[in-house]
Amino acid sequence: MSWKISALKKSPWVFHVNTGACNNCDIEIVNLLTPKFDVERFGIKLVGSPRHADALLVTGVVTQQAAPRLQEVYRQTAKPCVVFVIGACACDKGIFTTGYHVVGPVDKIIKEVDPNAIIAYVPGCPPKPEAIISGVVKALSTL
Amino acid sequence: MDTPLNILFWIAVIPVTIALGLCATWIVRKVSALVQWRVGPPLLQPCYDVMKLLGKEILIPEQAHQGVFTAAPVIGFASVLLLSIMFWRIGVTQKAFAGDIIVAIYLMVLPSLALIMGGSASGSPHASLGTSREMKLVMAYELPLILAFIVVIIKSGGVLQLSRIAGLEHAPVLSISGALAFLVSLMCIQAKLGYIPFDMAEAETELASGILMEYSGALLAVWKLMQATMLVALPMFLVTVFLGGFGPNLNGWLIGLGMYVLVLVLIILIKNTNPRVRIDQAMKFFWVYCFLILAIAVSLAIIGNTFKIYWL
User: Fold this and answer.
1) Which residues on neighbouring strands pair with residue A83, listed in sequence order?
2) Does residue B1 surpass a pLDDT of 60?
3) pLDDT, averaged across chain A
4) Which distant-in-sequence residues (6+ apart) come within 8 Å of B299 by Cβ?
5) In percent, how much of chain B has pLDDT > 70?
6) What is the ipTM score, two decimals?
7) Domain ranges for chain A
């Protein structure tokens, strides 16, 4: 394993992208930073700019407005990076499958930009914080 | 000059400074976590962060001025390293040149200027907003900081040499004017480090890390290293100027180290118990309140120095 990947596993900085979520998954993500879960123990930090990020936490069905923005954010992220798809809507559109404004699950939109993107799925409505931590650990262990 | 100890000093000074800076960064994060009832990151976390950033892709925006954009972090880091080398040299060998306090003041402005250069070269609206705030902040805190040094210079009888200020018979902080100047310069150091309550240039929640927004990969790693070494240089500066400095023998060094940790913990506690202020509030704080306090301190110092009353 190269030193780059091993250092990346020790300090994954995450950037939070909301592509039309109902705010429920976002609350659970913010919950991860609270004293109860404290993901800074593992070096995970929420950063303000996609240029600093190693992982994108994407929540929400991708709406028509949000799709080009999501692609732009993915392009701006410094590679190597991982995309975490958080919540049932982001994984498979959830209850909004037939919505007229929904252009597809997150992985489809990301793969239009980069077919080889590393994508991890954390389903749930909303996923528990424990489930998000477990998803992040599993995804990083496959790198 | 070419004794083995001297050669060892020049070999070790930069790695030791960087290692201490990363350690101080860990202390900042760990103490902040403990204040918030969290566990906090492991000891090697800052090293992992820097290693990871060194291995990542460097993105340079199309609108950015490439030369300035890449040179700015290097200039900032180099100036902070130079500053800390000056203080190590005063602490270890007790040698300094006349007027080095002026050089130190100039070197302390350079990191902020490098941040302004880098931010304005990155061609991003968020970064330019952060740049304008940083510029206003620099203008706000530079005057009180220099006035605080003037208090010390008056108390030392017009000496412009850091090693002689550090070796003063009465440490400046043990007098009323010196204590006032120390408090104000602590706030200025807080603003120089870009810590809450004066982190409006980097403001992660509103400006999306402001000045550093467009930096990624190795260039961001250099910025992080610069901020880490500033955590060594600036509290060391306060210890050298106000608290009596690092002594010539081992005992004096231990006392100096204790005071360094004390200053660092004070900075962290201020950081963790305050909200972010607006830029106009910060300017009012530095220009009105700090300036008034220092005007009193300067006059007290002049009176004390004329009539040989050392506690004034």
Assistant:
1) A56, A119
2) no
3) 85
4) none
5) 96
6) 0.83
7) 3-141
Compute the distance between CA of residue B295 and CA of residue B288 in angstroms, rounded to an integer. Answer: 10
Q: How far apart are CA A65 and CA B9, in angstroms?
A: 59
Q: Which residue has the higher pLDDT, A92 or B202?
A: A92
Side-chain-side CA neighbours of B296 within 13 Å: the count stands at 13
Nearest CB to B214; choose among A7, A8, A51: A51
Query: Looking at residue B78, what is its pLDDT?
Result: 92
Rounded distance between C-alpha atoms, residue B222 and residue B215, angstroms: 10
Is it true that the peptide bond before A80 is cis, omega within 30 degrees of 0?
Answer: yes
CB-based contact B216 A35, cutoff 8 Å: no
Residues of A with CB under 8 A from a CB of B: 3-4, 7-8, 10-11, 35, 38, 40-41, 43, 47-49, 51-52, 54, 76, 78-80
pLDDT in tens, B10-55: 888 888 889 989 999 999 989 888 888 888 888 888 988 898 888 8
Residue B289 tokens, joined: 């309140």
Give the fold, CATH level 3, of A3-141.
Answer: Rossmann fold (3.40.50)
Domain-by-domain residue ranges, chain B?
A: 4-306
The per-residue pLDDT for range B234-270, each reduced to its tens digit, is 888 888 888 877 766 777 788 888 888 889 988 999 9
Whether pLDDT at A104 is above 80: no
pLDDT at residue number A42: 84
The answer to whether residues A62 and A104 touch, using CB atoms and an 8 Å cutoff, is yes
Using a CB-CB cut-off of 8 Å, the residues of chain B touching A8 are 52, 55-56
Among residues B40, B207, B264, which one has the least CA distance to residue A38?
B40
**Nearest-angstrom CA–CA distance, B268 and B274:** 10
Contacts with A131 (C-beta within 8 Å, 6 or more apart), sequence order: A122, A124
Cα three-residue angle B100-B309-B266, rounded to 5 degrees: 55
